[in-house]
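Per reviewer request, we include the raw input and output of the structure prediction for the construct analysed in the revised manuscript.
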Amino acid sequence: MFKSERGVKIMDLFKAKKQLSLDYLYNELFCSKATLRRDLMELENMGLIHRNRGGASIVVSGNNEYSYTFRDIENRDAKLHICQLAADFLSDGMSIFLDSSSTVLNICPYLKEKKHVTVVTNGIATAFNLIENQCAETYISGGYIKNASTSIVGEHSANFFDKYNADLAILSCRGVDKSGLYEAN
């Protein structure tokens, strides 16, 4: 199991049980004690768990945002399916807003099939993917790079988007209700 996959698995176990012993984690993950300790230290440094003698517990907060690496592999099939559906809305000559999410990153391959597309994004990984694959004329916002993310955020970034109009915006969010869309920050 790769490190990022193990991190997702660990967080899934914590979501289910909130507090876990080291012995339980060893049995579930089939990794060495040293590897598990390193993973738990990294998750603690990210503010996701709190280690204690003999185990660890999840940090309870409604606004935790997992690192981009973990989010990228979590629910991978669902993300690919969402982007496959969203691809039907793409056409030649469009101006598109793409957010920095790991879900939206998966729309980039569909842009290779389109001509004269302009993309405006706050996603470092998204911009890199578009540039690397020469998919679109790409603009990226400036601002603060959020820790454990590939997002550029803040007032400067928000003001950047005021200067552009788009035919389509493709965004992901943490929640939706009748009042609007919600993000972790």
